[in-house]
Fold:
Amino acid sequence: MKKWIIIIGSIIVVLIVIGVLHDAGYLNFKWTTLTKLFAALAGPYMLMKNIFFNRNSVSSVQEVLDKSKQGLLNDEEHREEYDTKIAEKEQEIQKLEKQIEKLDDKIKVIEYKKEAAVQEVTTMSTEQMMAEFEKMYGNEKDD
Structure:
């Protein structure tokens, strides 16, 4: 409680000094002036804060170190987990690439057969085409 009284008293003194300087005309409140003022007040404020609310005790430092170690362990676990997931996905990708290669080979065979059929059809005579048509679709005249 005593710390708070000292801090509040210091703030009141600083505000009174700022008010007196402003009334006397030494302070013109512009953004640059306010920035300089806040920068000047930041140093003593941090000093008082560190003196009265010092949280750099051995136990707090040890807590931070323990949290850091636990965080590193968690990171390692996550890294291993993701590495296994990545390896599984890479295996799936390899399987899919093999399937794609097989399908590409089948497409090439079909394209070759198509080209061969086109070549064969272009060399056929009209009678041969009619005979092949009847084999494939039947004779519609007889139906």
Observations:
- Helices lie at 2-24, 31-52, 58-123, 126-137.
- The two ends are 111 Å apart (CA to CA).
- The chain has four helices and no strands.
- The CA atoms of residues 111 and 117 lie 10 Å apart.
